[in-house]
Amino acid sequence: MDERHAPVLMEETFDLLRLQPGETYVDLTAGLGGHASRAAREVGPEGLVALIDRDAESLRQATERVAREGAPVRAAHGNYADLGEHLDALGIATADAVLADLGLCAVQLEAGRGMSFRDETSLDMRMDRSTGMTAAEYLNDVDEAELARVLREYGDQPGAGRVARAVVAARSREPIRTAAQFAAIVAGAAPRPAGRSRTHPATQAMMSLRMVVNAELPSLERMLPAALARLRVGGRMAFIAFHSGEARIVKTYIDRMRGKCQCEPGALDCRCGRERVLESLTPRAVKPSAAEVSWSPLSRSAVLRAAVKVAVWPT
Question: Which residue, among 262, 277, 261, has the nearest Cα to 229 in the 3D structure?
Answer without folding.
Answer: 277
